[in-house]
Design goal:
Distance between the termini: 92 Å
Number of strands: 2
Largest sheet: 2 strands, antiparallel
Length: 134
């Protein structure tokens, strides 16, 4: 072993320097504290769009309104909800159309084309109900 001499305020102090390398730790010890890839998959993602649909200040929606396959039923339900709501900021038409578009663009990203079709057809129906035909 090599000896290194350091001076401290008038007296010499010796410290020993290691010449051998440190012992290697096993890989099991290194990965014990780390997250594995499988644990990430098991944690559910929090969807902000679900929270908006449930706690929105714009409308009090009927449960399952967007699951319907009848565009007229979807439009009537949205109109009823928009007209009853006291917490909306815009007109009832704006609130209803906004919620429909929100669901199609955000919450409905996982929808198939067949499931999305009645939602798209509900837009003109909503316009008819509110007398805003093009």
């Amino acid at each position: 072993m090599a000896t290194v001499v350091k001076k401290k305020k008038g007296r010499a102090a010796t410290t020993k320097k290691r010449s051998s390398p440190r012992k290697k730790t096993s890989t099991a010890r290194k990965t014990a504290g780390k997250r594995t890839a499988t644990s990430k998959k098991t944690t559910p993602k929090k969807k902000w769009s679900r929270r908006v649909m449930q706690t929105s200040d714009a409308l009090d929606l009927e449960s399952g309104v967007f699951k319907s396959t009848d565009p007229k039923k979807i439009a009537r339900s949205l109109k009823r909800s928009a007209e009853k709501s006291k917490r909306k900021k815009g007109t009832p038409f704006q609130s209803a159309m906004s919620m429909l578009n929100f669901y199609i663009n955000r919450a409905g990203k996982q929808l198939t084309a067949k499931e999305k079709q009645p939602l798209e057809k509900a837009k003109p129906e909503l316009r008819k109900l509110f007398g805003r035909e093009e």
